[in-house]
Design brief:
binds zinc ion, mainly alpha, globular, 9 helices, single chain
């Protein structure tokens, strides 16, 4: 468990950096402060702890550090250790850890900027197909799903971005088709509830909403409740 905590923190800060990179040069250079570009020393790079020891500020320019950095690290650590206590409904631990590792930073980044970086979708596609050994590729179902996704995009292009469509496309290829269908509908159930709650508290119309956080929440719920959802789904047809 201790190993999972360390690993979760390190993966979170590394993948978050990969998510926010604009070009490959990031591999050669050290992490820096978003504001003053001061290069961070090793003691400023410890996940979670640095953030609190530095009193949530950059040591050099005193600019507040974005909360999404420690949030990403804490959430990733939690999601890394949860499977040690609760077993997954879809018993594919490799896929679970891959999805948590890639989608959590993407969610926070989407939340902050409303952007889903292309290179992350590509990375997800390649590592996903590689790690699942193409096991979940079901050509007819997947092509069908991709066509429907594009139809959804053309009908509702105001409320869904093409980045989301690309992410869903990758998901249908790296997960079982049932899993994908449940995740898709759960995304809109979770998202819908969130919008309803938000509307109750705010009078104004809600501006654009990042979808990746809801996709990720839906997928993680789906991982744990897969068997139950499966029963409900088939129960409805019998
Ligand atoms: Zn700074």
């Amino acid at each position: 468990m201790f190993v999972m905590i360390i690993l979760g923190g390190i993966c979170a800060s590394f993948v978050y950096a990969v998510t926010s990179m604009e070009n490959v040069s990031f591999i050669y250079r050290r992490s820096e402060c978003d504001n003053c570009k001061h290069k961070l020393g090793w003691h400023e790079l410890i996940p979670v702890l640095s953030y609190f020891f530095q009193k949530r500020k950059c040591l050099w320019c005193k600019q507040k550090i974005d909360i999404s950095y420690p949030a990403c690290e804490i959430l990733m650590i939690v999601l890394y250790i949860v499977p040690l206590f609760f077993s997954l409904g879809l018993k594919d631990y490799t896929l679970y850890y891959l999805i948590v590792t890639l989608l959590l930073p993407m969610s926070l980044y989407d939340f902050r900027t409303l952007i889903i970086p292309n290179h992350m979708n590509l990375l997800f596609l390649i590592t996903g197909l590689f790690l699942t050994n193409l096991y979940y590729v079901e050509p007819l179902w997947d092509i069908g799903a991709i066509l429907i996704l594009h139809l959804v995009y053309f009908l509702f292009s105001e409320s869904i971005g093409y980045g989301d469509i690309k992410l869903f496309t990758v998901l249908t290829l790296v997960t079982p088709i049932n899993f994908f269908i449940y995740a898709f509908f759960l995304t809109y159930i979770v998202g819908g509830l969130f919008v309803i709650i938000l509307t109750l508290y705010r009078e104004k119309m809600i501006p654009k909403i990042p979808l990746v956080p809801f996709i990720s929440t839906a997928i993680i719920l789906n991982f744990f409740l897969y068997e139950e959802i499966d029963q409900i789904y088939y129960g409805g047809f019998l």
